[in-house]
Amino acid sequence: IELDALAVPAITTARLDGLQRLDLELTENAAGVAVVADAAGHTSVPGVWAAGNVVNPGMQVSEAAANGARVAMTINTELVFARADDAVRGTTATVRESA
Fold it and tell me: What is the reported pLDDT for 92?
């Protein structure tokens, strides 16, 4: 067969070396294999977030970086609220104990 050009799709696979034991939910499409995560980066494993081209192999560098920044803000916010919730619970317990 004589050809002037040949197009071959690239398949991208998320690099999850060392994370197999977490049993993250994965998905596969034409772009490759990716970690399943919601828009905030939550994966199927509590406390594990994913962002960028690990969740969408078709993302360009700038989009992946922006997604990573958004997920980082989510992580920070959740950690701040968790500490605030812990502080409130601690205060409530102290108030009840001294009453």
Answer: 57
CATH number at residue 92: 3.50.50.60
How buried is 34 (Cβ within 10 angstroms: 0-12 exposed, 13-18 middle, 19+ buried)?
Answer: buried
In a domain, 77, yes or no: yes
Structure tokens at 5: 């050009």
Q: Does 98 score more than 70 pLDDT? A: no
- Rounded distance between C-alpha atoms, residue 58 and residue 55, angstroms: 9
Two structure tokens written together for 10: 């690239």
Looking at the structure of the chain, the number of domains it has is 1
Range list of β-strands (E), the chain: 12-13, 26-29, 32-35
Domain hosting 49: range is 12-98
21 or 31: which leads in pLDDT: 21
Average pLDDT over residues 22-40: 89
CA dihedral 83, 85, 86, 92 (to 10 degrees): 150
